[in-house]
Amino acid sequence: MNRLSRLSSAFALATILASATISAIPAPAWAATLSGGFDVGPGGFQGNFNPLAATAGFTWLSTYYEPLVSYDEKLQTVVGVLASSYEISADQRSYTFKLADAKWHDGQPFTAKDAKFTIELAKNPKTGSVLAARLTAVSSVETPDDRTVIFKLSAPSAGLLDTVTKIMMLPEHALSQIPPDQLAKNGWWSSTPIGTGPFKFIRYVPDQYVELSANGDYRGGKPALEKLINRYFANPAAAIAALRADEIQFTYVDSNDVATFKDKADVRVIEGESFVVNYLGFNHDSPIWKDLRVRQAVMYAIDRGAIVQSLYGGAAKRANCAYVADQLVPKDVEPYAYDPEKARQLLKEAGWDEINGGKPITLLTYYTTPLAANVMAAIQAMLAQVGINVTPRAVDTPTFNSIVLNPKPDVSQFQMIYAGLQNGPDPSSINAGLNEKQIPPAGANVVRARMPDLTAALDAALGETDLSKRNARYRDVCKIMNGELPWGTLWVANRYGVVSAKVKDFVWTPAPGGGPYQAHPEKWSLAE
């Protein structure tokens, strides 16, 4: 019996459980209405309404909110959205944005005061902002006139512009009276939010959908569609069934579902790099991971090649640090080729039986798709073969965040995590998950990695003002990650969406977190 056959029993239960479906909720039937699973993947993420706290779902959020700047649809160039132009000073300590002539959905003008207000909210951790730690270099925000906003930095920050693409502008006149510490859970986000985008919020029906209508006063012209509907589904299979029944016209799909759509003339499959690195995060506050040899053993015990081929269908690249792009990976990094015997030897040398004694280790994740269940089962089986016993636990994203972002977490709840973090388009994105200065509540270093060499390398890369030297700085980051293993890095997978052939001028990019990027939803339309 070959090795993958031996793992089949581990996969079987996950596959059976994950394939269960429930009846799809009928979408409201309106003319010129585009419905889809636009949020954060098959099944969606209810409650993902507050862009300050969102780590995903920007494909949807950016239909009614807008940032100052965004990536183009190829994720290569940062372009203006609510900023008609921008300029960065030679010393990279001053960012000047000239603002477009735009209005909020209630008719009030969008001004520099709104931009200043939004940046100050995003900098304030009391608001629940997930971007606060990324904005520490912004020392002040100046508004010399209604159409100009200037960010002043205490030191150059190479990743700042990438961060600004994720900050959706918010209305000062609607939110200024809400205390910052009450903003995150305020009902405004799901009842009466206003943005500047091509569509306006109409209603949220829990467990069913969010409805938007065309903004007739949009500066880019009235949208071609009358309405947009974001549907929620109990599981990915229900979303796919709704797409096949033409109840929706778009949804994300996992790589193992793509084959069923490849030759269908009535749909189009969209494929692209996710710019998200998946990893096993070692909770460094747990004593079981203190010895580097134990972390190395985890890497050697997992046949990443087999998982990529058998579960992802080859649609992923193995990662030996946070990056897979050739220009960011040194030639001499350790490939951690599958070697269970070496893993056993390293564990023996480290005294694993005395360290852990065969106790089960909680492997926490927020990935709940059938593909993720199969991946977790494979990892569980492979680690068991070398004497590391993990127990997968999949929870929803809010529960996951409440556990790992807790300033004083219960270590037993997440000794290890299976997660993903954005590693592009700008490589600085990875800083939030690895820099010692970003340990919660300051940031998103949820594994509590305290590695001085790694932090120094990340700081040097973020502060590099010479663009020709940035790649070398991130190669330093990669090499240290590869050697010290704050994570057990796994792979960067491709991401997929499927859209009905009836949809015209539709732009969807497999971007990390759903973007934002230039999608021009005001141009989307449906064929008669």
Record the SSE blueprint.
Layout: H1 3-6, H2 8-18, E1 33-37, H3 58-61, E2 69-71, E3 78-80, E4 83-88, E5 94-99, H4 112-123, E6 138-145, E7 148-153, H5 160-164, H6 172-175, H7 180-183, H8 188-191, E8 199-205, E9 209-214, E10 227-231, H9 236-244, E11 250-253, E12 267-282, H10 292-301, H11 304-310, E13 316-318, H12 340-350, H13 352-355, E14 361-365, H14 370-384, E15 390-394, H15 397-404, E16 416-422, H16 431-434, H17 452-462, H18 470-484, E17 487-500, E18 503-504, E19 525-526
Would you kindly provide a written description of the structure presented here, covering whatever features stand out?
- With 528 residues, this protein is α+β, with helices and mostly antiparallel strands.
- Among the domains are: 71-184, Dipeptide-binding Protein, domain 1 (Alpha-Beta Complex); 273-494, Dipeptide-binding Protein, domain 3 (Roll).
- Helix content is 27%, strand content 21%.
- Strands 1, 8, 9, 10, 11, 12, 13, 14, 15, 16 and 17 form an eleven-stranded mixed β-sheet that branches.
- The protein starts with a helix and ends with a strand.
- The relative contact order is 0.17.
- Mean pLDDT is 91; it is low at 1-30.
